[in-house]
C-alpha cells in the first residue's frame, strides 16, 4: 500500500484517538480488502445458491428476474445510510458505537446484542450451508457420507476451527485470503453463468418475468400454500438474506487504511457488485432449467437437480469445487466480523469476561480470545439447537429464520437514531463520504420502511416462530438491561472520558508494538 502515507496514518490515528480508542489492531487492509471482506460475507455463491428454492419454489422465474433486483435495492438502502455514519465514526464494531453516540448507552447496548446474536448465528448458518453444499456436491456422491448430527457437527468444527486459526494468525493473511475470495467469487459467478447458458436447451427470456405460484405441494412445500402476491414477496427473502453482512466493512474499520473513505465505499460497492453478478448468475441458471414446474417440485434440491441434468460432469465438479472454496472463505470473513464486534463491545465492558475478550495479541495483532469465542459459540449454537425441536421443527431452523431480522434490526437502530441526530450536538460533524442531509434522511426513511417489510416477511409461515423468538429476545434484553446492565455498563467513551483515556491509549499501543 505505497499510497498510504505518514499523513494518512496520522489522520487515521487522530480519528481513532478522538473517539477514545487505541490503535491496537493493525492497519493492513487496503480499500479493496475492506470491500472484499464484505463481498466475501455476502457471497452470492453461498446464499444465492443455498437459498435458491425460496425463488424457484415460490414465484418462479419472476422471483429472480424481478425479485432479485428489488430485494437487492432493499439491502442497498441500508448500506447507503450506514455508509454515511461509518465515514463519521470509523471504529471496529461500528454499529455498537454508532448506536451509543447517536443515541445513548441503552440503544448502543441493544444494537450490539442484536448484531452480535445475528453474527454468531449467521456464522453457524453459513457453515451449515457449506456443509450441505459439500454433501450434495462431493460428500454423498463421491465419499458416500450420510447426513447426521454427528457428521454435521464434526464437519462444522473442522471448517470453523480452520477459519478461526487463519484469523488468529493476523489480519494480513486474512486480508490476502478475502482478497482472493473477491476475485474467486467474481470469476466463479461468471463461469457458472457461462456454463448454464451453454447448457441451456433454449433461451426463454420471458421466463425471467413470468409469475407463477408454486407454494404448497407444487414447490415441494418450501412455502405453505398462499397467494401469488405473497409468494412473490416471500421470494424477496432470497436477495435480502443473501445481500447482508456488509457491516463487516465497518467492523474492520480500525484495520483499514484511510478508513473514513474506504469503509463507506467498501460497504456500498460490495452490495452493488454482489447484486449485479448475482443477477447475471441466477438469470443464467433460470434460463438453463429444463422445466420450471419440475424445478419447483425439487424444492431445496433444485440447484443440484438442474446441474446434474444439464451440465457436463467434469465442468460441474470444477464449479462445485470453486463454489465450496468460496463458501469456506465466506465463513472465514464472517469470523473476522464476529470477532471484531466481540472485541469492540468488550473493550467497553459490554460482555462477560470483557477483559480477556478485548485483549489483542502483541504477536499477531488480533483479538485472539474474541476470534475463538465467536467461532466456538457458532458451533455450539448449531449443535445445541439441532438437538432440540419445537413440534416437528428443529430450534436451529427457527433461530436461523430470526438471524436476518436481528441483523437488520441492528442496522436500523443507528440509522433511525442518525435520522434525528443529524445536525445536533450528537452528530454535528460528517465524514469525507457525505451524501448531504436530504439524501441521507431519504435513505434513512427508506431503511425504516424496509425494516418493517423484512420483519413482516420474516415471520410468515413456515417461519412464524420467528415472531415469538424475536419478542422473547426483546423481553429478555429488557430484563437484563434494567436488572443488571443499566447500573454497570458505561458505554463507549464520550466527552471528557475521551481526554481521560489518552494515557491508557498510549500504554495500550505500546503494549502491542504500535509505533
Automatic annotation (TrEMBL):
Keywords: Membrane, Transmembrane, Transmembrane helix, Transport. One of its GO terms (cellular component) is membrane. It comes from the Bacteria. GO terms for molecular function: transmembrane transporter activity. Pfam families: AA_permease_2. It is found in: Membrane. It is a multi-pass membrane protein. PANTHER family: AMINO-ACID PERMEASE BAT1, OS04G0435100 PROTEIN. This is Amino acid/metabolite permease. It comes from Sinorhizobium fredii (strain USDA 257).
Amino acid at each position: 500500500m505505497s499510497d498510504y502515507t505518514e499523513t494518512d496514518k496520522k489522520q487515521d490515528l487522530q480519528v481513532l484517538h478522538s473517539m477514545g480508542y487505541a490503535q491496537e489492531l493493525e492497519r493492513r487492509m487496503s480499500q479493496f480488502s475492506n470491500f472484499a471482506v464484505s463481498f466475501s460475507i455476502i457471497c452470492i455463491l453461498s446464499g444465492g445458491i443455498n437459498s435458491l428454492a425460496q425463488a424457484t419454489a415460490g414465484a418462479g422465474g419472476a422471483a429472480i428476474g424481478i425479485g432479485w433486483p428489488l430485494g437487492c435495492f432493499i439491502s442497498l438502502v441500508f448500506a447507503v445510510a450506514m455508509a454515511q455514519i461509518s465515514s463519521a465514526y470509523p471504529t471496529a464494531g461500528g454499529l455498537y458505537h454508532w448506536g451509543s453516540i447517536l443515541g445513548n448507552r441503552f440503544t448502543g447496548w441493544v444494537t450490539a446484542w442484536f448484531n452480535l446474536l445475528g453474527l454468531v448465528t449467521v456464522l453457524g448458518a453459513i457453515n451449515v450451508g457449506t456443509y450441505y453444499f459439500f454433501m450434495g456436491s462431493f460428500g454423498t456422491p463421491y465419499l458416500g457420507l450420510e447426513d447426521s448430527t454427528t457428521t454435521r457437527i464434526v464437519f462444522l468444527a473442522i471448517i470453523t476451527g480452520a477459519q478461526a486459526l487463519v484469523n488468529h494468525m493476523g489480519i494480513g493473511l486474512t486480508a490476502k485470503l478475502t482478497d482472493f475470495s473477491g476475485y474467486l467469487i467474481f470469476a466463479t459467478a461468471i463461469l457458472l453463468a457461462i456454463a448454464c447458458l451453454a447448457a441451456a436447451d433454449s433461451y426463454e427470456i420471458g421466463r425471467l418475468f413470468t409469475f407463477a405460484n408454486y407454494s404448497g405441494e407444487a414447490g415441494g412445500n418450501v412455502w405453505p400454500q398462499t397467494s401469488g402476491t405473497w409468494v412473490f414477496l416471500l421470494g424477496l427473502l432470497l436477495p435480502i438474506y443473501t445481500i447482508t453482512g456488509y457491516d463487516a466493512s465497518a467492523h474492520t474499520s480500525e484495520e483499514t487504511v484511510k478508513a473514513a473513505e474506504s469503509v463507506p465505499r467498501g460497504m456500498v460497492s460490495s452490495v452493488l457488485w454482489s447484486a449485479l453478478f448475482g443477477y447475471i448468475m441466477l438469470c443464467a441458471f433460470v434460463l438453463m432449467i429444463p422445466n420450471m414446474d419440475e424445478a419447483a417440485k425439487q424444492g431445496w434440491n433444485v440447484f443440484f437437480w438442474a446441474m446434474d441434468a444439464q451440465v457436463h460432469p467434469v465442468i460441474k465438479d470444477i464449479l462445485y469445487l470453486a463454489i465450496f472454496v468460496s463458501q469456506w472463505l465466506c465463513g472465514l470473513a464472517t469470523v473476522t466480523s464476529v470477532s471484531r464486534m466481540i472485541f469492540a463491545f468488550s473493550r467497553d465492558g459490554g460482555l462477560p469476561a470483557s477483559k480477556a475478550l478485548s485483549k489483542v495479541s502483541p504477536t499477531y495483532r488480533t483479538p485472539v480470545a474474541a476470534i475463538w469465542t465467536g467461532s466456538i459459540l457458532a458451533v455450539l449454537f448449531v449443535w445445541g439447537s439441532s438437538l432440540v425441536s419445537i413440534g416437528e421443527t428443529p430450534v436451529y431452523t427457527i433461530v436461523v429464520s430470526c438471524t436476518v431480522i436481528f441483523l437488520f434490526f441492528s442496522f436500523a437502530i443507528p440509522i433511525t437514531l442518525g435520522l434525528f441526530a443529524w445536525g445536533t450536538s450528537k452528530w454535528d460533524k460528517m465524514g469525507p463520504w457525505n451524501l448531504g442531509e436530504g439524501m441521507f434522511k431519504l435513505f434513512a426513511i427508506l431503511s425504516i420502511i424496509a425494516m418493517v417489510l423484512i420483519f413482516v416477511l420474516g415471520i410468515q409461515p413456515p417461519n412464524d416462530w420467528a415472531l415469538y423468538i424475536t419478542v422473547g429476545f426483546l423481553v429478555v434484553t429488557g430484563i437484563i438491561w434494567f436488572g443488571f446492565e443499566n447500573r454497570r455498563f458505561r458505554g463507549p467513551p464520550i466527552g471528557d472520558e475521551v481526554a481521560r483515556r489518552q494515557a491508557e491509549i498510549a500504554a495500550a499501543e505500546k503494549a502491542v508494538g504500535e509505533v
